[in-house]
Amino acid sequence: MTRKLRPMELRIYKILGKKVIFHFVGSDIRDPDFIRWKANHINDYLLDPPGREKSKAWQKKLIADAEKYADQIFVSTPDLLELCPSAQYFPLVLDDEKFLSELKLASNKDSFFKSDKVKILHAPSNSEIKGSKHIDETIEKLKGKIDFEYINAKQLNLDSGTTYPVSRYQLFQLYQEADIVIDQMIIGWYGAQSIEAVLSQCKVICYIDEELKSHLDKNCPIVSSDVNQLEEVISSLVNSKQTIDEKTSNEWFIQHHKLENIGSILIESLS
Fold it and tell me: What domain count does the chain have?
């Protein structure tokens, strides 16, 4: 859903016998102020998640309209099921053939990373809600303890021509160079960047909320870490000689994020 539909429009669709499907993503129904609060109080949240309102009044009205008129409601991440319990989790999908072909084309004579050390990348779309401050602070603590090179893409000060710190082409090059990608430490579930980094054969670190881990496949290659565990998790991955199990990673992607394989969920809702 890309815009708010008035109840009258929804009633007309129903009268005409049309299927009505809502697909909620992130701040469609999750209050961005809650995520900002969480970013500034993440340690308090981890100790004792507070009973704060996670949706604004207009978002609750949107959910109520969806539950009244929709034939099916999907959410992009399982945390949104708390806000709309009648919904179904429909995972992010990615065209892996297109992504991998574009990944191969991304190259630059000058590398972003400048050493042969283990290369760690953090490329936040939004530094605040991705927990970049906590990631950068942890990296500072690790300097001198383990051998690595770190890039926070926002600090490259490149002109991507968008609100993102780097262009897609530049991000693909960074994926190719990196050994470890750190996604986010606040939201509590992985996003498109984690999936892309897995397909790029990078080790991936991301905060997965304890309440949501039941939605993870046992073979999920993403390493879960909160801000308090991050120093230990980074050290372990930097020192580990174990490489990515490409077969397991690809099987996980195909099963959970390849459109051709999970599209049946959408097709069934239309039948």
Answer: 2
- 121 and 18 housed in the same domain: no
Please check the confidence at residue 7 and state whether its pLDDT lies above 60: yes
3-state secondary structure string across 187-225: CCCCCHHHHHHHHCCCEEEECCCHHHHHHCCCCCCCEEC
* Interatomic CA distance for residues 73 and 209, integer angstroms: 23
Residues in Cβ contact with 183 at an 8 Å cutoff, skipping those fewer than 6 apart: 130, 190, 191, 193, 194, 197, 204, 205, 206, 207, 222
Q: Are strands 72-75 and 88-89 parallel, antiparallel or unpaired?
A: parallel
- Positive or negative torsion for Cα 79, 82, 83, 88: positive
- Which residues span the domain enclosing 36? 7-90
Residues 74, 80: Cα–Cα separation, whole Å:
9
Is the predicted pLDDT of residue 246 greater than 60, yes or no?
yes
Lowest mean pLDDT among 7-16, 96-105, 115-124, 180-189: 7-16
Side-chain-side CA neighbours of 36 within 13 Å: the count stands at: 4
Same domain, 53 and 103: no
Domain match, 80 and 151 both: no
**Same domain, residue pair 78 and 110:** no
Q: What is the pLDDT of residues 159-211, one digit of tens each?
A: 767 778 899 999 999 999 999 999 999 999 999 999 999 999 999 999 999 99
For residue 72, which phi and psi values (nearest 5 degrees)?
-155, 140
Q: pLDDT averaged over the chain?
A: 90
* Residue 122 domain-assigned (yes or no): yes
Query: How far is residue 123 CA from its own chain's centroid?
Result: 12
Helix axes 96-105, 192-199, angle to 10 degrees: 70
Q: Examine residue 271 and state whether it is found in any structural domain, yes or no.
A: no
